[in-house]
Write a structure and sequence with these properties.
The protein is mostly helical. The protein is built from five helices and no strands.
């Protein structure tokens, strides 16, 4: 995501593959703080302050905000025809995967067994009461 910040892409950040490599890079940066100054300045001028270091950034930002406000509110575009069926499909898949995930959980299976056993016991009791009432 931040590939443009890397030195090899014109940025000012070096990526380390390991902690020892990171510590080596850090030691080098602390030993020679001016070593990367030109590279860092070029990056700042190109990426952070593209209108120039001498121009204040606040008026540029304010002009951009005013310009966006002047454009007015845009109405959202219409969703493509396939977005409705896609939403249903994604919801269905997520429900199935969630159910499968829960069923594969030993803890959930134990709870489910207890709940089913409780429901069956309650149904048996209701049935017995109903049969007893009918006999009377």
């Amino acid at each position: 995501h931040f590939h443009y910040l890397l030195v090899e892409n014109g940025g000012c950040i070096s990526l380390a593959a390991s902690m020892p490599e990171h510590l080596s890079q850090l030691a080098h940066a602390l030993d020679a703080p001016a070593g990367n100054a030109l590279q860092t300045r070029a990056f700042v001028e190109r990426f952070v302050r593209p209108h120039g270091l001498e121009r204040p950034a606040t008026p540029i930002l304010a002009d951009a905000i005013v310009g966006l406000a002047a454009e007015g509110r845009r109405s959202p575009g219409r969703a493509p025809w396939w977005s409705g069926p896609l939403r249903v499909l994604v919801l269905s898949v997520s429900l199935v995967t969630g159910t499968v995930s829960r069923l594969s959980s030993a803890r959930w299976r134990g709870r489910a067994r207890k709940a089913v056993a409780r429901s069956l016991e309650q149904a048996r009791k209701r049935f017995r009461r109903a049969v007893t009432k009918r006999r009377k």
